[in-house]
């Protein structure tokens, strides 16, 4: 079921990118050149066959002159429910000192903490304290 959601997200992203490209009156080749990606790779993204990295999405957004954050949401990198616009995620994604793998690892750990806290809130009585150090260690070992 998770795989269907991921492929659905990638497909929706591809449809959105194609729509934005055609509205900008750019050919696939022109957008690929402006974004610094190969023509076949961009075609695969548009057809929902590839999930691009945050860096590639940022390059495409810049070439299309649209919000990179909107592409991150459509790609499932950011959640639209993040109250402050996903400031943690945006900070990680915008850090040029990190590799793509490091960025993804940090985002995965952050998401696991959020999920752990949500689960704790659902199970704990209203007057409970914050999760203890053992809970954080458990969350890290699950990675």
UniProtKB/TrEMBL annotation:
Return the annotated region ranges for Disordered.
124-143
Lineage of the native species? Bacteria, Bacillati, Actinomycetota, Actinomycetes, Propionibacteriales
CDD domains referenced in this protein's UniProt entry, alphabetically: HTH_XRE
What GO CC annotations are associated with the protein? Answer: cytosol
* Protein known as: Helix-turn-helix transcriptional regulator
Q: Which Pfam families match?
A: HTH_3
Q: Which PROSITE patterns match?
A: HTH_CROC1
Q: Which GO terms describe its molecular function?
A: DNA binding; DNA-binding transcription factor activity
Looking up PANTHER family in the UniProt record yields: HTH-TYPE TRANSCRIPTIONAL REGULATOR, METHYLPHOSPHONATE SYNTHASE
- Please provide the record's keywords in A-Z order: DNA-binding
Which InterPro entries does the annotation name?
A: Cro/C1-type_HTH, Lambda_DNA-bd_dom_sf, TransReg_Diox_bact_type
Q: Which residues form the HTH cro/C1-type domain?
A: 17-71
């Amino acid at each position: 079921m998770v795989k269907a959601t991921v492929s659905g997200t990638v497909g929706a992203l591809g449809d959105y990118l194609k729509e934005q490209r055609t509205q900008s009156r750019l050919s696939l080749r022109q957008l690929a050149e402006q974004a610094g990606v190969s023509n076949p790779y961009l075609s695969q993204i548009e057809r929902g066959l590839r999930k691009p990295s945050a860096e590639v999405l940022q390059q495409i957004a810049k070439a299309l002159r649209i919000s990179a954050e909107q592409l991150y949401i459509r790609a499932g990198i950011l959640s639209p429910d993040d109250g402050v616009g996903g400031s943690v995620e945006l900070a990680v994604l915008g850090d040029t000192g990190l590799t793509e793998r490091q960025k993804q690892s940090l985002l995965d750990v952050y998401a696991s903490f959020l999920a752990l806290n949500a689960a704790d809130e659902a199970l704990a009585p209203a007057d409970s304290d914050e999760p203890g150090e053992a809970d954080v260690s458990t969350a890290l070992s699950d990675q």
